[in-house]
């Protein structure tokens, strides 16, 4: 059984080796490895059997090869023999071919040379044709580029940009494959930027130049507007005349045509730069830049010089620059499409108008010269008229002129205040003497004075007012003339001018002249005589106010009966001044009385009186008599009031003298002497120093002193105490506290007083009576204080 198994394995092994050999024979040698490896993976010693099998196969193949070689050997030998025979013929043929080739080469060498020359010529011809064709395409490009260079050199930038556009869109695309075209194409953006930079540089130069020319542009425009119509207001024989001087025959519209800024300024940089940026598609950038720069320049133009208010030339330069600036803007607005808009110029003008009004309001407030303010007003009017002709609204400027008019009036008021004070300083405060008819007419021509009685008098004669009255009247009219000058060219109706004149005149009268009169009356060197003359002067000035109203009416031709016509307040002004002068008269009279009272030198302990009035009092009465004689020219009530005031003040001063707390003792003799002085005062009052008093009205000023002195002189205490508080009391004006104060002063001197000494020696009951009176008086005083 083992033998059978061995045989089976041997048969399988042989079959496997046979398969492997077939694979080796049929497989590429590069893939033999796996097949050979399978020999070694089989049973042990299988490779030996395989080698044996392989040897057998090799021997079989060798026998087959040998058989085949033997079979074909004779044919091979025959072939070699035939080949050797052909060899000699081949060598002969080779020699013939070589000779033929040599002869052919010799014959074709010249043809080849000619052919190569023909080919070379054909190539050159083709290249020349191509070159001509290419040059025909390139020449227009080069010509256009050359034209571009010429345009750039001649600064024809707008045309250069058009040429660039043609190069880019038409010419360069035809020859874009050439290097020089590529260089051109790359260079064109740079040239565009160069053009932008150059045009922007020209614009900056233009903007710088326009700043320098603005002053000249504005000066020319304002001069032409100023010369169109000139309104002249002047005086002729005391009458105001208005004359219109037509210095140019051209109309305002014709004038505007003349006032073109391009006559003085070359605007081509603006147009060129605008076109360039428009072509380059960057117009918005240019518009923003131009507007921004002009706004900056506007702020610079609107910035005034620090000392502009000192001279009119400073204002003129300021206005010239502003007018020049906005005339340039107006020209650019109308000569370009969209670079500037009306909204932008309006915004710029509104900004400028706010700045201008603020500047003028500030600088004019520092101006104290009315002539300079008037010149400034004329400049503002010309400035406004010039810009209004170009469509700029100027209503705010005319509104500002009303503010400046108030400033002008203020400067006029200050100037006329100095004029009035100088007139008052130089016045002699005495009636105007006129020696001849010519002198009288000279005064009357300057001041509306009419008095039938004085006209009937013979020369020489005196007019009641002093020299200051006609001078003041003339100066008020001069003020009206000066105020009227401001109304020229303000485009206001005569009704408004009339109202302005009346209001400014009212300010002159109620504030300036009134203030000067008030100041005058309070000056220390102005005495009673001067005050009396001042009252007379103000009376005549008050009467002349209606002539001032007629004077204004003649100027404006506005009826004073118009509803809105302002009335002059001169009447109240001069009344107030007169009342102030009257008050000063009362005050100075009282001061003079106080000066005399201070000269009083009573011996309050004198045993008996001197039998005559004190010297100081007689001097005082004589002064009052002479003073009241001067008051004859005053209105009756003024003189009466002054006289009554003086008597009351004298009475009060005498009462205070005897009741002075520093005076401790008064003798009966001193009371008698004091009574003599009071009697002189009463005699003066009864002598009617000023006419017009009824009865003993003036004497009532001394009634308090008289009743007090009668009470002590008569020693009528029983009647006083019994009738106290009764309306019919004899001593109704004697106050218990006054009587008590004087009685206590006399009581303290009882030991030194002769009368009281007799009372004490002869009748002590009388001394007790005094004590009783004192107690009763104190009781009355205490009762009055408790009741109050």
From TrEMBL:
One GO cellular component from the entry?
A: exocyst
Which keywords belong to this entry? Exocytosis, Transport
Q: From which organism does this entry originate?
A: Oncorhynchus mykiss
Q: What are the BP-aspect GO terms? A: Golgi to plasma membrane transport; intracellular protein transport; vesicle tethering involved in exocytosis
The protein's name in its UniProt record: Exocyst complex component
Keyword Transport recorded: yes
Q: Which InterPro entries would you find in this protein's record?
A: EXOC6/Sec15, EXOC6/Sec15_C, EXOC6/Sec15_C_dom1, EXOC6_Sec15_N, EXOC6PINT-1/Sec15/Tip20_C_dom2
Return any one Pfam family short name: Sec15_C
User: Which residues are in the Exocyst complex subunit EXOC6/Sec15 C-terminal domain?
Assistant: 397-745
Positions of the Exocyst complex component EXOC6/Sec15 N-terminal domain: 53-222
Write down the PANTHER family for this protein, in alphabetical order: EXOCYST COMPLEX COMPONENT 6, SEC15
According to its UniProt entry, the function of this protein is described as: Component of the exocyst complex involved in the docking of exocytic vesicles with fusion sites on the plasma membrane.
């Amino acid at each position: 059984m083992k033998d059978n198994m061995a045989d089976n394995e041997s048969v399988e092994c042989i079959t496997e080796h046979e398969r492997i050999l077939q694979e080796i024979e049929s497989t590429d040698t590069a893939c033999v490895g796996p097949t050979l490896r399978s020999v070694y993976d089989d049973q042990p010693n299988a490779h030996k059997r395989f080698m044996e099998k392989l040897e057998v196969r090799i021997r079989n193949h060798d026998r087959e090869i040998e058989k085949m070689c033997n079979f074909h050997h004779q044919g091979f030998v025959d072939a070699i023999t035939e080949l050797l025979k052909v060899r000699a013929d081949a060598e002969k043929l080779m020699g013939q071919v070589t000779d033929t080739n040599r002869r052919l080469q010799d014959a074709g060498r010249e043809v080849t040379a000619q052919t190569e020359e023909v080919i070379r010529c054909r190539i050159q011809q083709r290249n020349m044709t191509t070159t001509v064709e290419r040059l025909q395409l390139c020449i227009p490009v080069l010509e256009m580029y050359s034209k571009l260079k010429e345009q750039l050199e001649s600064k024809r930038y707008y045309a250069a940009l058009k040429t660039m556009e043609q190069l880019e869109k038409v010419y360069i695309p035809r020859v874009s494959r050439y290097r020089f075209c590529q260089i051109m194409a790359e260079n064109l953006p740079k040239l565009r930027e160069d053009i932008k930079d150059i045009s922007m540089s020209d614009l900056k130069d233009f903007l710088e130049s326009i700043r320098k020319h603005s002053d000249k542009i504005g000066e020319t425009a304002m001069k032409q507007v100023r010369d169109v119509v000139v309104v002249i207001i002047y005086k002729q024989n005391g009458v105001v005349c208005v004359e219109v001087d037509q210095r140019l025959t051209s109309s305002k519209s014709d004038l505007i045509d003349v006032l073109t800024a391009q006559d003085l300024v070359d605007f081509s940089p603006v147009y060129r730069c605008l076109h360039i940026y428009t072509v380059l598609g960057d117009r918005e950038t240019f518009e923003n830049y131009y507007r921004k720069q002009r706004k900056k320049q506007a702020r610079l133009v609107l910035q005034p010089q620090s000392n502009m208010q000192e001279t009119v030339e400073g204002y003129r330069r300021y206005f010239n620059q502003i007018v020049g600036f906005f005339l340039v803007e107006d020209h650019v607005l109308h000569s370009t499409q969209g670079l500037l808009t009306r909204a932008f110029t309006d915004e710029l003008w509104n900004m400028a108008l706010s700045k201008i009004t603020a500047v003028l309001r500030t600088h004019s407030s520092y101006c104290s010269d009315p002539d300079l303010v008037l010149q400034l007003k004329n400049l503002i009017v010309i400035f406004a008229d010039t810009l209004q002709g170009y469509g700029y609204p100027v209503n705010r400027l005319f509104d500002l002129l009303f503010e400046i008019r108030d400033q002008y009036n203020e400067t006029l008021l200050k100037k006329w205040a100095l004029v009035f004070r100088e007139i008052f300083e130089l016045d002699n405060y005495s009636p105007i003497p006129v020696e001849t008819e010519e002198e009288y007419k000279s005064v009357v021509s300057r001041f509306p004075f009419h008095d039938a009685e004085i006209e009937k008098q013979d020369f020489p004669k005196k007019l009641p007012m002093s020299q200051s009255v006609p001078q003041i009247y003339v100066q008020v009219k001069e003020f009206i003339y000066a105020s009227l000058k401001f109304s020229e060219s303000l485009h206001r109706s005569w009704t408004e001018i009339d109202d302005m004149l009346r209001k400014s005149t009212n300010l002159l009268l109620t504030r300036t002249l009134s203030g000067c009169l008030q100041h005058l009356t309070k000056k220390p060197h102005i005495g009673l005589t001067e005050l009396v003359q001042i009252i007379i002067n103000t009376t005549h000035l008050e009467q002349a106010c209606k002539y001032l109203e007629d004077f204004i009416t003649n100027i404006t031709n506005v009826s004073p009966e118009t509803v809105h016509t302002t009335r002059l307040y001169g009447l109240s002004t001069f009344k107030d001044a007169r009342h102030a002068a009257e008050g000063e008269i009362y005050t100075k009279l009282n001061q003079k009385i106080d000066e005399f009272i201070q000269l009083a030198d009573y011996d309050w302990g004198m045993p008996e009186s001197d039998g005559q009035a004190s010297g100081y009092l007689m001097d005082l009465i004589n002064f009052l008599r002479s003073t009241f004689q001067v008051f004859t020219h005053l209105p009756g009530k003024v003189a009466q009031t002054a006289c009554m005031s003086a008597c009351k003040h004298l009475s009060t001063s005498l009462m205070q003298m005897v009741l002075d707390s520093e005076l401790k003792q008064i003798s009966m003799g001193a009371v008698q002497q004091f009574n003599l002085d009071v009697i002189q005062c009463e005699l003066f009052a009864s002598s009617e120093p000023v006419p017009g008093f009824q009865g003993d009205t003036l004497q009532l000023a001394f009634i308090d002193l008289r009743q007090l002195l009668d009470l002590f002189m008569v020693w009528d205490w029983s009647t006083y105490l019994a009738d106290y508080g009764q309306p019919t009391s004899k001593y109704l004006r004697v106050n218990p506290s006054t009587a008590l104060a004087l009685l206590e002063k006399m009581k303290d001197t009882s030991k030194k007083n002769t009368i009281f000494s007799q009372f004490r020696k002869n009748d002590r009951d009388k001394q007790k009576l005094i004590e009783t009176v004192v107690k009763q008086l104190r009781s009355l005083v205490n009762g009055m204080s408790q009741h109050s």
